[in-house]
Amino acid sequence: MAKPLILVTNDGGINAPGIRNLISVMKEIGDVIVVAPDSPQSGMGHAITINSTLHTSRITPINSEITEYSCSGTPADCVKLAINELLDRKPDICVSGINHGSNSSINVVYSGTMSAAIEAGIEGIPAIGFSLLDYRWNADFSPLKPFIEKITRAAIQNKQRADVVLNVNFPALPEGEIKGIRVCRQAKANWVEKFDKRQSPMGRDYYWLTGEFINEDKGQDTDEWALKEGYISVVPTQFDLTAHHAIQELNSWNFEN
Amino acid sequence: MAKPLILVTNDGGINAPGIRNLISVMKEIGDVIVVAPDSPQSGMGHAITINSTLHTSRITPINSEITEYSCSGTPADCVKLAINELLDRKPDICVSGINHGSNSSINVVYSGTMSAAIEAGIEGIPAIGFSLLDYRWNADFSPLKPFIEKITRAAIQNKQRADVVLNVNFPALPEGEIKGIRVCRQAKANWVEKFDKRQSPMGRDYYWLTGEFINEDKGQDTDEWALKEGYISVVPTQFDLTAHHAIQELNSWNFEN
Questions:
Q1: Any chain A CB within 8 A of the CB of B238?
Q2: Residue B52's domain is classified under what CATH number?
Q3: A contacts of B153 (beta carbons < 8 Å)
Q4: Containing domain of residue A178, as a range?
Q5: CB contact under 8 A, A118 and B110
Q6: Among residues B17, B42, B185, which one has the least CA distance to residue B115?
Q7: Which of A58, A94, B141, B155: disulfide with A120, CB 3.0–4.6 Å?
């Protein structure tokens, strides 16, 4: 079998340690092409650039035969550009990350890492987003590597569906303490925002968005539960947002009142 | 019954004709507070501002007793700021739009209009996003107004669930030609991107994102079908992205190879 072509991207920017670690794992599995933002894009959700131009730069890292492009756009832009403009053929799989910080539960909707993976899914390419529950730039990604390799190989071998994108989160645990892999649902949890209100030197009010993460979902089939117990969470994620269960109820509404 | 408190926002910016039309309808239904971006935010998806500060300005439009705030952030930021900082009490409903352009089918994932509504849903507030299939700044919103009023009143009367956000799209038809309201699922349709590659005066390549919208979903229960036939589409939309149907299959994968 020919080596799979693997598109690697992220939201932390092409120089983030997370993506450098992800590239090093993917080199063992297939041919790698990197198209990633030229600067950090955390919290970009599924933003795309429609009222502005996009630039790319081809980068040749020292001692590397891998083709890399940095892009001025969002994570979703990177995937669109890669697939439709930069790559000679459709990649076999797209991996995004490793994100510095959690994309579990409701974080998935704010996540640039996952939006890149979801964009690949929309374009018909199987995709996985990887995130580590450690925000630090110098987080230790080495315990994750064997698991990332196993999950990616399993996705290729099992012919992962493009319309089911994997959201993989890792607990911040040292080598040997990760208990294994759990397939989960997204926990019903959310942020309770607190805005830190300050005053500029010119006397104008401004805010920093902060908040506290609250999980009231006690289910043992959730990503939050798995991560707390020391497991890697794998949530199958879709981009058909229809609440099919609500259609019947809505059809009973009287819109004429 | 006390008048409902209605939070109005959008992604086209506080001065867009779409939101001005939405405000004029909401004034007939309840007490209105507006918190909207100070500039257009189309295509922002569910972006939030975490690496930068947020500013708000209180605006007092001429001949208006409505409190309005413009905000430097994204549509999702506006909703977070409104609910957690600017409003004295929780709004009874949040409406977003009217977007100049479609948010049907896959457009929902790129939509700032819908991300604002979804953010309200995440915060426990029933929410509706309204969009018109006409991109023009001077689009005619008047045929929509009676329908927007009916849908919003129905949502309040039927105690809409916060975890099911309504994505409402209007066909661009003159008064009297809209056939009615259809509850739909999101069509399986997507954009086939084409990048318009140009060269700057300095000789550097850059791109504009363009594309063609392709709908291969022939279902007559979809939003695309309803809109094409002259109906208003109402898609119940959720922020639990779990592909529950895929969990069983994923649990059969062997991750140890």
A1: yes
A2: 3.40.1210.10
A3: 257
A4: 5-190+218-250
A5: no
A6: B42
A7: A94
